[in-house]
Design goal:
Number of helices: 3
Radius of gyration: 25 Å
Organism: Brumimicrobium salinarum
Structural class: alpha+beta
Distance between the termini: 63 Å
Largest sheet: 5 strands, antiparallel
Shape: elongated
Helix content: 25-40%
Strand order of the largest sheet: 1-5-4-3-2
Protein name: DUF2116 family Zn-ribbon domain-containing protein
Order of helices and strands: HHEHEEEE
């Protein structure tokens, strides 16, 4: 038996650990702090994308309070709508592509016109 024992320390605060051999942190605070710091870069990126998606949804909802409406693309752009970010695309049997930001969506029609819609329960 060796006289030098492996000293295990908390990955965050480096406090000596006692107990389970697979223990990595001295407590919940250190575990949360370590993981938050580890994921910080991706969280900032995801936060920025989610803010864009929320703003897009808010704009669609504001311009379409009754469930179906046609608007000019310029109106969406003036409100700050970002056409590059959406949550999903729904393609109908006829091939029409509805672009959605959560439950609010649009279909591009002729002459820079967009038909705004609310997602129906049957659209999955």
């Amino acid at each position: 038996m060796s006289t030098t024992e492996n000293k295990r320390t908390c990955l965050e605060c480096e406090t000596p650990l006692h107990g389970r051999r697979d223990q990595k942190f001295c407590g919940d605070y250190c575990r949360n702090t370590y993981n938050n710091r580890l994921n910080e870069d991706s969280n900032n990126y995801m936060r920025r994308i989610n803010n864009i998606l929320r703003k897009n949804r808010r704009i669609l909802s504001k311009l379409n309070p009754n469930g179906k409406k046609t608007v000019d693309g310029i109106n969406l752009a003036e409100e700050g709508f970002n056409f590059h970010y959406y949550t999903n695309i729904y393609t109908t049997k006829k091939g029409s592509k509805y672009v959605f930001c959560y439950d609010q969506g649009y279909l591009k029609i002729d002459n820079n016109q967009y038909m705004l819609v609310h997602k129906q329960d049957y659209v999955k």
